[in-house]
Amino acid sequence: MDGRRNFLKTAFATCSLLAGSKLLTACTPIKKVATDEETFETFATPDALKGMPIKATFLDEISWDIPHQNWGTKEWDQDFKAMKKMGINTVVLIRAGLGKWIASPFQCLLGKEDVYYPPVDLVEMFLTLADKYNMAFYFGMYDSGKYWQEGLFQKEIDLNMALIDEVWKKYGHHKSFQGWYLSQEISRRTKNMSKIYAEVGKHAKAVSGNLSTMVSPYIHGVKTDQVMAGDKALSVKEHEEEWDEILNNVNGAVDIMAFQDGQVDYHELYDYLVINKKLADKYNMKCWTNIESFDRDMPIRFLPIKWEKLLLKLDAARRAGMENAITFEFSHFMSPNSAYLQAGHLYERYCEHFIL
Amino acid sequence: MDGRRNFLKTAFATCSLLAGSKLLTACTPIKKVATDEETFETFATPDALKGMPIKATFLDEISWDIPHQNWGTKEWDQDFKAMKKMGINTVVLIRAGLGKWIASPFQCLLGKEDVYYPPVDLVEMFLTLADKYNMAFYFGMYDSGKYWQEGLFQKEIDLNMALIDEVWKKYGHHKSFQGWYLSQEISRRTKNMSKIYAEVGKHAKAVSGNLSTMVSPYIHGVKTDQVMAGDKALSVKEHEEEWDEILNNVNGAVDIMAFQDGQVDYHELYDYLVINKKLADKYNMKCWTNIESFDRDMPIRFLPIKWEKLLLKLDAARRAGMENAITFEFSHFMSPNSAYLQAGHLYERYCEHFIL
Amino acid sequence: MDGRRNFLKTAFATCSLLAGSKLLTACTPIKKVATDEETFETFATPDALKGMPIKATFLDEISWDIPHQNWGTKEWDQDFKAMKKMGINTVVLIRAGLGKWIASPFQCLLGKEDVYYPPVDLVEMFLTLADKYNMAFYFGMYDSGKYWQEGLFQKEIDLNMALIDEVWKKYGHHKSFQGWYLSQEISRRTKNMSKIYAEVGKHAKAVSGNLSTMVSPYIHGVKTDQVMAGDKALSVKEHEEEWDEILNNVNGAVDIMAFQDGQVDYHELYDYLVINKKLADKYNMKCWTNIESFDRDMPIRFLPIKWEKLLLKLDAARRAGMENAITFEFSHFMSPNSAYLQAGHLYERYCEHFIL
């Protein structure tokens, strides 16, 4: 109890001490958080950034570079509950498979491709949980990891066409099945991949009664592996020109464009987002931001991002008029259930900021 | 309670929905796990792999590349309890020392080599715990880290001869002291080291009334540092020829051969394991698999492996007729007590699968 | 209860078993730790090193390479409590800012430099907590990250001169404000930076009624990035000569010299520490050791250090006559609240050893 009185006393003392300074024109109300035993001042600064809320997350179970948490249904159930509490209403399966690893026993892949038989039907599990928590689920496509080269595109398209048919027939009855995610992450170097987007996206919409389709490309910026290895980053103007061409190719096949926000530096982000919004408007797409909740600036690749960095990016997204924010991804990097305990504290900071 | 009813309802619905499909010829029983409050369906797939159980683990306290957990006796006691619950009956000290670091105040090393005086007698502690939990303990040899070059082998042999004498005299009274581990991890590049195996192994057996000796070499495969740096991986046939020669050198000195299973790709593993079994049979050895429970495929080197990958490897081992499985290693990568919380979830998935 | 009896029995058995051996001249008392339910022997070795206690820690919130924990005031309050319990009486803000990131809304930086507006006033928070827990707080300077080159030094000096004035005016009333930390980490390669030390240090002392100033340089040893990249490590003699010159340059501006202890190998440390003490004595400084509590020897850069290594370094520091030990840093690497759970166990080993 002594602790609490100390803090309150300090809070008021600070307030009167600074009352005449340039820093505060009026006495800023002191933000506080309560625990069972004590009340703590947050020491929030008077002009702290606002940001915009995150309403969606990827589900990264068939992972490229993020170690697995080995959760079963019980743990996933708890995590969906935590998402919901934070305001998340949409979950997006990052991909149905990558190379030999697949999320569910898809017959069309087990028969044709050299894939491992999976122990769990993740798609059924995620849909069941999304139904339970009243969320929207987007199904991410299969990424062969090998048919990206010119001349092999058609194979990647054919596999996904068959997969869409099988998946919609088997899982389409779930009320939460509300969209498709075109999982191939393209950039300027792989722009011919946009043909995959177009064909696959149109087919997915056609079989499912026009459900929404999403893409999440990345900017060829200073934090891409290519640029870190010596390549030149794309200027804002070059970015606009290249993507104008790419988006023209996929017109009518993509409803939501959610650029990844981590490949450019924090102070550069706003300018790129403004262009993304302009392009989305031109092609009649919704413009989301894919806000990365992991930290690209540390030698451990990757742990949860610092709250200050997340807030900076959420504020740039707000100012640039993004229509929604999806994070990559909640369960490792923002969840109170994450094996990375920094994630749970990021969740607390986020909830504290948005007063959840 | 609502949650549970939802899940059960979904489970039966799924069952009847699919009853006529090719996917299920009969209605597969739904696997469930119970918690205090709810029952959760596991969403196990109908043809999920079986695998074989893990009955042994290394103890990696004098570590090469795995950060320490800083456990005292209390934490180790809890961990032995968790091992026992999972079915582990054998613990193997990975090494008595590595370079300047040693596991216990061995007089024969403190006197002759430039080693640090250790704060804890780990060998006494591990033997005491193995006694308590009715496990077998294997003592791993000292690895100087510097006498591996041609011409210096004899020094490594002499040090370990003296160590065996001292250790058997001091710790041999423990009922759990049941074997020796020849800790030098050899591969084709270091096959002359097999001389160490032979001499040291024979001496250890001689002083201890013929206790078992174990080795755990590695395959010169695609995930070794050497091959990742440009060297050519060994084919299955080359692997067989080279190891036929090496095993001939150590005939009579080694009772258990437990190849590490992480240096080859998942789909290659079975073929190598079949050869290992054939070779073990030829030289009258027991053939175990050393199943790595850490993930070699991620940028963080290393965190716990994905359950699906572990199960794939355990199933390849089962099909190839391995006689036992030892993991590297329980306490960091599979334990509910691990600092890596993914490990605790791997433990849960393992126990769930083997219905423990 | 059975467990406890077992352990005690073993303890006495071991004692009588060894009573006549060379290992123990008298029967060493068995060290034990108690939990709620059981008593555990520690298996401490008879001649275990002593070490010296750690009384200070850095606060690494504006971090260079350590991922953030995303703590709020509540979590920091708990952490100061844990520090206090371990005997820490001094906290040192590692830096007021680094490049665009700053710890508090410093007007002199927000106006002139391209910095981000911070969400929290960390300086006010840390001072409030240091007041509450009766600790001393040292304020670390701003590091621009870009004015280190010859010819730009004056800019770094000017920024810090203005910062000192602002900070002392705004925060100087706190009873815990008791010193300054000159945060630029220099070594032989950057020795011209000592001009910054001298000018900034003198100004800080002048405005604050001669509060203490601290530096924490590093030895150009085998574990620096430079030497690992091919550069030659500095011998003990070269180290002495170069630092004699540097310290001569900063005479009168620095009160405490706390060399980082992690860039040399464990067996080399003592010799360097002896020289550091000699140099500190010559220039009338206090000689502390900056004991790194993270592990530089592992592929994950960085997790908490092994207790044995920490103890080795604390013992070298004790023998070399260090006057105090500050760690980099408590909250990530030694704290029971750390996201790295190995840190909590390091805390337990430390407290057990020093019987806290």
Descriptive notes:
The structure is a homotrimer of 356-residue chains. Chain A is an alpha/beta fold. Helix content of chain A is 40%, strand content 15%. Chain A contains twelve helices and 13 strands. Chain A has helices spanning 2-17, 73-86, 107-112, 122-132, 153-171, 194-207, 225-228, 236-249, 269-282, 307-319, 330-333, 341-353; strands at residues 32-34, 39-41, 56-59, 90-93, 97-98, 101-102, 136-140, 142-143, 177-182, 212-215, 256-260, 286-292, 324-328. In chain A, strand 12, helix 10 and strand 13 form a beta-alpha-beta unit. In chain A, helix 2 packs across helix 4, helix 5 (153-171) runs parallel beside helix 6 and helix 8 packs parallel to helix 9 (269-282). The longest helix of chain A is centred in the middle third of the chain and has 19 residues, at 153-171. Chain A is globular and about 60 Å long. Chain B binds chain C through residues 65-75, 77, 100-101, 104-105, 107, 114, 116-122, 124-125, 128, 131-132, 170, 173, 300-302, 339, 341, and chain C through 3, 6-7, 10, 14, 17-18, 22-23, 33, 35, 38, 40-49, 266-267, 295, 298-300, 303-308, 311-312, 340-342, 345-346, 348-349, 352-353.
Summary keywords:
homotrimer, 356 residues, alpha/beta, eight-stranded parallel beta barrel, three-stranded mixed sheet, 12 helices, 40% helix, globular, GH (chains A, B, C), DUF4434 (chains A, B, C)
Write a compact overview of the structure shown.
The first copy, chain A, has twelve helices and 13 strands. In chain A, the strands form three sheets. The first copy, chain A, has an eight-stranded parallel β-barrel with strand order 3-4-7-9-10-11-12-13, surrounded by four helices. A three-stranded mixed sheet of chain A has the order 6-5-8. Chain A has a two-stranded antiparallel ribbon with strand order 1-2. In chain A, helix 5 packs parallel to helix 6.
